[in-house]
Amino acid sequence: MLNQSPPKMIGDILAEQGIITRSQLEEALQKQQRSQEPLGRVLVGLGYVTEHQLVEALAAQYQFVERDIRQTVDLPNHNLIRESSGEEASVIGLVQHILQKAVRLGASDIHFEPQETGFRVRLRMDGILRPLLNLPVNMQAAVVSRIKIMSDLDIAEKRLPQDGRLPLSTGSQKYDLRVSTMPTAYGEKVVIRLLDTGAVRQYRLEQLDFSPHNLARLKHCLRAAYGMILITGPTGSGKTTTLYTVLNELNNEQRNLSTIEDPIEYRLEGVNQTQVNTKAGMSFAVGLRALLRQDPDIIMVGEIRDKETAEIAVKAAGTGHLVLSTLHTNDAVGAVDRFIHMGIEPFQVASSVLGVVAQRLVRRLCPYCKQPYRVVADSLEGYFAGVLPGQEAVYYRPVGCRRCYHSGYRGRLAIHEILLLSRRLRTLLLNRATADELLAAAGQEGMQTLQTDGLTKAKQGLTSLPEVMRATYFQAESFFDTTVLQKM
């Protein structure tokens, strides 16, 4: 069973032991933010701690014995791995520790990256990669082999990519770990995606950061008996979470819910889930065609990737089924445009698509350390936020504290835009209106863009302006106006 309490930071351990002062710790943290090096290495470099003191603190933090720490952590001038009966146990303990650490910190991915002079381990937290460990290069083979064994992969195959999975339990919580290996110039790189299999089953739409305006628009779509609802956004934008939460909302004993997915990321009680198997000839199109003979009420297609799947999905939506699926497009109007470019006729899109949800994930400001500041019109942020000349607006910036691991952010939240295909928009679509014309008409009918939703949440102190700018730059005309950029 894993301990879910927040881990004690190594700097706090050293300060509590009286080895360093709080001012020395703050100095080291500031330098670490600039250099992105592990804190222990920074402290040793500043001369505030010795190698021996750091090893003892690492042992306390990782709950390892000192001998194992010296065998796994990158420190100067020590014997890294000894040929002994304890070597295998040390690697097993190290891999288990990394998995536990990733779960405790709420990481979404773990990266094991071979380098010329080391073996780097990083965690993706709140969408950003952060360094965890820098291991000696001669540990790479043992660590990768251990992960392969755990995920039932071929440890002898190092020339080709492999995919596997392994379960991880943390008390009442269960995680599904997706493992991907890739040969690189310095050896095999491994990425592990952590999926909390129980989290999605507990979600409600009200928990997904929809504004009251957007939540009402989405629920309006979900009341329809047939048609298609699309969720769009880039990889890692939370589409799967939204899709499964919508399925949860629609799931009851009076309906037959069936899915075709690649892969099945979360298992839902009462939902008939089928996985794509291309080797056996089970593609999205083949599976979707078969689902139509299973008397479904609601069909979920994990992703519409080609014209054949799109045609079957449109046909299903027009013949009495509610179809849910995802696309990779920048915004909601782009999903309609993508269908047409796939070869679907505008009249088919107009008659089948009910609405499109576009979304992005931005980092949530740490509520304990965020600070307000004033944004003036004569700045890039002010121009982006629409601050009028001579005026200013209050937004919030990240600062950094112990609770957010000095990043200024703690978790993520979604920003959305929801396009509803009204009678007017369907007419425009039939007349082959451009994407800009559709966007203008949708705005007149109440659609708030991703940028607008993001700015509203930044104004509320939920996220920062730079985060909204990063996520929605493609919607901001100022980024394409070179005359404005020259003035900043």
Automatic annotation (TrEMBL):
Keywords: ATP-binding, Nucleotide-binding
Coiled-coil ranges from the UniProt annotation: none
Pfam families xref list: T2SSE
GO cellular component entries: plasma membrane
Top-rank taxon, per record: Bacteria
GO molecular-function terms, A-Z: ATP binding; ATP hydrolysis activity
Statement: the UniProt record of this protein carries the keyword Ubl conjugation: no
Residues annotated as transmembrane: none
ATP-binding keyword on record: yes
Domain Bacterial type II secretion system protein E: 292-306
Similarity section: Belongs to the GSP E family.
Protein name from the UniProt record: General secretory pathway component, cryptic
Gene: gspE
